[in-house]
C-alpha cells in the first residue's frame, strides 16, 4: 500500500511539473535596446528548444562564415546555444549589462581596428562583471592573469587593479588580441589562444599538422570556449527570436560619468573624495571597481563620479582637502627593526584592523624597517 501511495504522489508531481512547463512556454519573458528588431510582446512566445538551433541564416564570427553544414561544428554550436538558453536569467543579465557597457567597449575595439564581435569574448569571460576571478587568478572583465595584465600595460598592486577598469582592461585586451592575431592570422585560433595561451596552441598546431581551429583536437575547455562566444553572439543578436521581449525601461542605462583629476602628496582617503562629490563611499567604489582598500595612492589619480557632479566638485574638494591636509592630528609612524603590525597597533592603542585599513594592507602584508604607516586620529 505504501509503495502504491508513493507511486501516486510521484505521478501527481510529474503532472504538476508538466502543467507548469506548459504555462511557462506561453509567457513572454522580458525582450537590447537597439530596438529596431524588438518584437511586440504578443508575438514573443518561447520557441521550442529544437527550433532554437535551426540555423536558417548564415552565421559569421569576425567576418568568417561559420560552416554549420559541417556536422561537428553544428553539434558543438548547438550544445552551447542550448545550454545558454536554458539559463535564461543569465542571458537576460548579459543583455541588460551589454546596454550599459557595450557602447564603451565597441568604441575602444573600433579605435583599435579590430572586429566588433570580439566584445562577446568579455561576455563569456566575465558576464561583464568587474570583480569576477578564476581559480587560476584571472580577474576582471577580460580575465587577465596578473603577469599578462602587467605585460599589456595594466597597473596591478595593493591599491589598484586595472583589470577591473572597463576602459583600461578593454584597451589591454585589444592589444593582446591584436598580437595573437598577428601570430595566428585567424580569429577563432586567436581567441582560442586567448584562452589556452599562444605557446600551447602552437604546439597543438605543430603536432596535429593543422592550422584550422575547427579541425584541431584541443582541450574541452578551449573547444567549448570559442563556441560559447559564437553562441553568445548568435543569441544576443537575435534575442527577440528566443522570447526575450525587452521594453525600453528594462535595459540598464548606459554607463555615464564625469572624470575628476586629483593630486595629493600622500595617499588620499576615498571617503574624502566621496564627501566632496556629495555621494557615498560605495558609489565611488562601484564606479571605480579597480580601486582597492580605502585610500587613493599618493600622486595623480583620475576618478569617475556620477555625471553632472563635476561642476561644483573642485571647489568643495579644495576646501575639504585643505582642512584634511592642514590637520596635524594624523601621525606617521616610521617602522623600526623588530616591529610588526600588531605591536604598532598596540603602541598607538588602535585596532589592528584599523591600522591595516588606513594603510591598504592585509594580515599577510610584510612591513620593513623604514616603512611609513599612517595612524589616523579618527
In short:
This protein has 15 helices and eight strands. The chain is mainly α.
Describe the structure.
The protein is mainly alpha-helical. It folds into 3 domains: 41-250, Orthogonal Bundle (Lysozyme), CATH 1.10.530; 258-326, no CATH class; 331-375, LysM domain (Membrane-bound Lytic Murein Transglycosylase D, Chain A, Roll). It has helices spanning 2-24, 49-52, 71-86, 88-111, 119-126, 146-151, 166-184, 187-196, 198-208, 220-237, 270-277, 281-287, 310-326, 341-347, 352-358; strands spanning 60-61, 64-65, 258-264, 268-269, 295-296, 299-305, 331-334, 372-375. Strand 1 and strand 2 form a beta hairpin. The longest helix is centred in the first third of the chain and has 24 residues, at 88-111. 29% of the residues are buried.
The CATH architecture category of the largest domain equals Orthogonal Bundle
Q: Which residues form runs of ≥5 with pLDDT under 50? A: 21-33, 39-44
Report the top-level CATH class of the largest domain. Mainly Alpha
- Approximate helicity band: 40-55%
Strand order of the largest sheet: 1-2
Instruction: Determine the N-to-C terminus distance.
Output: 73 Å
Total helical elements: 15
Written as H for each helix and E for each strand, in order along the chain, the element string is HHEEHHHHHHHHEEHHEEHEHHE
- According to CATH, the fold-level topology of the largest domain is Lysozyme
Total E-strand runs: 8
Q: How many separate structural domains?
A: 3
Q: Main beta sheet: strand number and arrangement?
A: 2 strands, antiparallel
> Strand fraction band?
5-15%
The overall pLDDT average reads 86
- The radius of gyration computed from the alpha-carbon positions, rounded to a whole number of angstroms, is 26 Å
